Amino acid sequence: MTVRTDESTQKADAFAGEMLTALNNSATVLMLSIGHRTGLFRVMSKLPPVTSGELASAAGLQERYVREWLGNMVVSRIVDYDPNSHEYALPAEHAMFLTPDAGPNNMAAYADAIPAFAGVVGPVADCFRTGGGVPYSAVPNVQEVIAGLTNPLYDAYLIQSILPLVGLSESLTAGVEVADIGCGQGHAVNLMARAFPESRFIGFDFSEDGVVAARREAESWRLINASFEVKDVARLGISNRFDVMTSFDAIHDQAEPDKVLRNIREALKPGGLYFMLDEAGSSLVEENLDHPLGPFLYAASVLHCMTVSLSQGGAGLGTMWGEQTARRMLGEAGFTNVRTKKFGPDIEHVYYTCTK
Questions:
Q1: Cα separations (Å) of 315 from 228, 231, 252?
Q2: What is the pTM of this model?
């Protein structure tokens, strides 16, 4: 059979176009991160059309940098530009996905993760040749980046939508003992502690910086039912203590996720409930072709979640470990009645509940 040259050429040209688009979009993502970090999107969303000088003044920034940044925003079709008045405007339809007011829909917060993880591209590339991984500490601001992605979701939906969906609101209202595994900066724990004063909460994390931040927030909110402890959750060493245990995006990047899950079950009282929020997806790559965040999550896995685990000689499950693997591991840890739920506005996660 002879390959049709014209068809092959069209296919090659189409792919070249896609790669050019990817290259341009990746550059724009870096500019989105700068717009997020400097507050430019927030400031623009509050202003009428402005010149670069007026925007720089309002944002307290240097005009020359702002003007060049605006050039990228204009050619990327994110910001409108009037060449006659030399004024720039952020359309309201765009602002609703680029500012803190957008909450969990703020795509600029996701963009902020790219330069953070890109800083380890070189060391991760070396790991492709030598094995091992790049440790958590290699990205100094990783907790701030992750908090920037997750906190808006928890603020918008955790208390009012997610906990009722998984059947936890009633018991938390009545008063139970709760532990969160891999709490990071503890925002989810503090939100629950504030909403459910009859329950007592403790968060465990191996990061001292994360625990310090969690305690600081709890103190600022004057919470007396939330505490935090630096602890390796693979060596939890607690039995039959908690009514409810939770983890928020914390299992897939553990060095020893199987041990962590067994420790969670051991720490629960008989009949206790474990709620795990983790990445939605399949364990089979072919089933993730239409995942709306598929490319982002696989990249996050290579540059953070998987490599952090491998740096500790761990399992390296990766961000896209998938529901099949998660269900299998929960069963192997001894959990029963494993159920999953999804919540429409949260396209990134699936919610697991299971019992001891």
A1: 26, 19, 9
A2: 0.90
